[in-house]
Amino acid sequence: MNNDARIVGVVAHDPAWPEQFTVEQRLLAAALPRRGASNTSSASIPGLTAKPVIETWRSVGAGGEHRPEPGP
After folding, report:
1. Residue 58: pLDDT above 80?
2. Between 63 and 27, whose confidence is greater?
3. Is pLDDT of 66 > 70?
4. Long-range CB pairs of 10-19, under 8 A, 24+ apart, other chains included
5. Of 25-29, 53-57, 58-62, where does mean pLDDT reach its minimum?
């Protein structure tokens, strides 16, 4: 059995994480226009210890149209 599982630990918040997500968001927008991208990881919460992983999801509405999420 091949076990390629990667162990990911929890680390102190890195102020670079928001910019890393912005870079990924732009790449996703270029590849998949008209789809929203959200950072759904614990790394998106300033000051919170978290896994050093940027997790994103793409929103798809009815008929494949993007439906923006409500703002704050």
Report:
1. no
2. 27
3. no
4. 10/49, 10/50, 10/51, 11/49, 11/50, 11/51, 11/52, 12/49, 13/43, 13/45, 13/46, 13/47, 13/48, 13/49, 13/50, 14/43, 14/52, 17/43, 17/44, 17/52, 17/54, 18/44, 18/46
5. 58-62
- The average confidence (pLDDT) of the chain is 76
Copy the structure tokens of residue 69: 């999420």
In terms of residues, how long is the chain? 72
Kindly list the distances between the CA atom of residue 55 and the CA atoms of 2, 11, 18, 36, 62, in Å, as whole numbers in the listed order. Answer: 25, 15, 12, 14, 23
Q: What is the residue-wise DSSP string for 2-49?
A: ---PPP---B---TTHHHHHHHHHHHHHHHSTT-EEEE-SGGGSTT--
